[in-house]
What we know:
Largest sheet: none
Radius of gyration: 15 Å
Helix content: 55-70%
Shape: globular
Distance between the termini: 40 Å
Mean pLDDT: 81
Protein name: Reverse transcriptase zinc-binding domain-containing protein
Number of helices: 7
Organism: Brachypodium distachyon
Number of domains: 1
Strand content: under 5%
Amino acid sequence: MAEIKMHGWPHGEFCCLWDQVVETALHLVLECPFSKSIWVSFQRDRPRVAAALQDVYIKGWWAILMKIKNGKRNLDSAVASMVAWHIWQERNKRVFKNCSSMPVGVAAVVRSELALLLEIDRE
């Protein structure tokens, strides 16, 4: 988050999703209870995505996901990318637009986009 400060963009010191700890990339994507609830919601249909959360470093987490191959594409890495992106988008909505969604709403958007991706893949 040092880059955000360097550019002078609006930000708070604490995580705007949880407001309990200093906001870092690791916390925002993997450690924040808000984010974890989104990841856990994918545990049943994408268990390897949620299982990768056991790693304590983003680099290790991503390395685990990149090793997973299921079919033509690495669908788990696509899901993980979508989840991480939408967590970041939720953070930005709160900072810049002063509006928020619940974790279930963020997960629903990811599922909707994933369905579109799978539909395109079938064509």
